[in-house]
Amino acid sequence: MIKLDPIVISGKEVWPLIEGGKGINVSNGFSSGAWAKENCVGTFSAVSPDFYDENGNFEQEVFTKKDRKERHEELVQYAIRGGIDQAKVAHEISGGNGRIHINMLWELADSERILEGVLEKAKGLIHGVTCGAGLPYRLGELASKFGVYYYPIVSSARALQILWKRAYSKFTEYLGGVVYEDPWLAGGHNGLSNAENPAKPEKPYSRLVEIRKFLNSVNMSDTPIILAGGVWNLDEWKDYINNPEIGKIAFQFGTRPMITKESPVCEAWRAVMMKVKQGDVILQKFSPTGFFSSAIKNKFLARLMERKEGEIEVTREPNNEFSEPLVVNQYKTFYIRPQDKEKAQQQIDAGFTDIQETPDSSVVFMTKEEVKEMKQDRANCVGCLSQCQFSTWSRASGTTGKLPDPRTYCIHKTLYDIGHGGSVDNNLLFAGHQVYRFASDPLYRNGHVPTVKELIEKIKIGE
Q1: Fewest beta carbons less than 10 Å away: which of 234, 341, 355, 393?
Q2: Does residue 164 contact residue 172 with C-beta atoms inside 8 Å?
Q3: Same domain for 123 and 200?
C-alpha cells in the first residue's frame, strides 16, 4: 500500500494521476472524461481528433481539394472542429470533476492556430494544455491568453532551461507543471537528443532531481513534475512520492489506459498488445518528423527495418572507393563500393527491383508495389507536419527543398487508419516499452477489460 495524496493541478485539487494524451484517436473525449470523472486528469489528443455531425455521429476525414495547401487548410479546420467536439464530450462525461487537458504535437503544422481555435470556442471546458515533440516556445503565451494552464513535455532539465529563458519566464502564472517524459521508455515520439545514446537508457531519478533544482532556482518550487514514460504501477515509484529531492509529483499513464472499456483502441490492436513480449517494442528513427519513436514490431515496422538494413551508400561519380556502377531505374547510374555489389544483387533478386535515392547519398531497395503506394501517399499529402521528410512538405515554404525520404512513411495515413480499426499488420502501432506487461497484469487476466474507474482504483493502491 502506498500513501497517495491529492495535489493541485490546473487550479483544482485532484489525484496526481494523469491519462497521457495519445493521437490520433487513441485518447479522446470518452477516455479523458472518464479519467476526470474519477477526480483525476484526463487528456484528449488534438492531433486529428474525431468530429461529429449534428446527430452525434462520427464523420470521416475527407479531403476534397487538389492543392496540398488547401488540403492542409481542411486538416486545420477538421482539427479545430474535432478538438471542440472532444472537449464537449469529455466535459459532459466528467460531470465537472477532475481536470480536462488537451495534448498537442508541437511539430504539427499550424499547431498554434489549432490550439487557439479550440481554446477560443471551448472556454471553460479545457483546463490545461500539454505539448511536446519539439520546443514549444509560444505555448506559455498562447495558454496564458486564454487563462489555461500549460504543461511542456521535456526529456531533460536542459530543455526546460531553454524554454524558460526564451519564453516561459514571462508567463509563470499559468505554468501548471512540467512533464518529464522518459525518452527511452515512452511510447510514440521520444525526446532523445543527439547527446544521448538510444541504446543506453538513464534512470529518471537524477533527471527529475535536476528539473526540480532548476524549478527551485526560479522560484517555482510548488510547480509539480509529471513523470511520464514507463509508468505502470505506483508501487514501483513509491520512492519518488513525498521525496524532497523531487518535490510535488504526479504520474502520467500512457500505455496502460489503452485497454479500458472507455478507450477508443480497436479490438485487434488490444489483442496485439495482450500478446506483446518484452523487447517487441522498438526505439527507432523512421518517423517523418525526424524524432525517435517507439512502436510494436509488426510487419509494417519490420519492413522499414529491413529497408534500412539494405541501405547502401552511393556517389554520383566514380572514385577509388566507389567504383562499382549501379543502374537506378534504367535512367541513372550511381557508384557503390565493390563489397556492396552482392548486397545490392541479393535485394534485387528478392524482388526489390525499384531502387530509390535518399537525401543522404544512399539508396534503398523497394518493390514496384511499394513505390507505387509511396508515390500515391505523397500525392495525397495533407500537410500534417510543419516539415515532413516523407513528402518534403513544409508549412513555411511549401517544400523542404530536399529529396523525399523513402526510408520513412506517411504518418497521418497510418495513424488515422489504425486509430479507426485499420490493419494491425500494415500500420504503425505506437506503444510504450512496458506494453508487454498486459500479459501478466492480474487486472487483465482472462481477457478482462477494466473500466477506467477499475484501473484508477488499482493504481491508487499501487497495483
Answers
A1: 341
A2: no
A3: yes
Please choose, from the candidates 231, 276, 185, the residue with its C-alpha nearest in 3D space to the C-alpha of residue 455: 231
Phi-psi category of residue 331: left, alpha or beta, with phi > 0 → left and psi -120 to 50 → alpha:
alpha
The tens digit of pLDDT for each residue in 420-463 reads 999 999 999 998 889 999 999 999 999 999 999 999 999 999 99
Please report, to the nearest 10 degrees, the dihedral formed by the alpha carbons of residues 155, 158, 160, 164 taken in order: -170
**How many structural domains compose the chain?**
2
Tell me which DSSP letter residue 160 carries. Answer: H
Sign of CA dihedral 182, 184, 185, 186: positive
d(CA 250, CA 101): 14
Grid cell for residue 430: 505506437
pLDDT in tens, 208-231: 999 999 999 999 999 999 999 999
Residues 115 and 215 in one domain: yes
For residue 123, the 8-state DSSP code is T
351 in the same domain as 254: no
Q: Give per-residue pLDDT as tens, 247-294.
A: 999 999 999 999 999 999 999 999 999 999 999 999 888 999 988 889
| Overall pTM surpassing 0.85 (yes/no) | yes
In a domain? residue 291 = no
Distance CA 99, CA 131 (A): 16
In a domain, 425, yes or no: no
Q: Is the peptide bond before 18 cis (omega within 30 degrees of 0)?
A: no
Query: 53 is in which domain, residue-wise?
Result: 7-285+434-460
Q: Which residue, among 68, 89, 91, 189, has the nearest Cα to 132 in the 3D structure?
A: 189
Quick one: how far is CA 37 from the chain centroid? 25
Instruction: Say how far apart CA 422 and CA 416 lie, in whole Å.
Output: 8
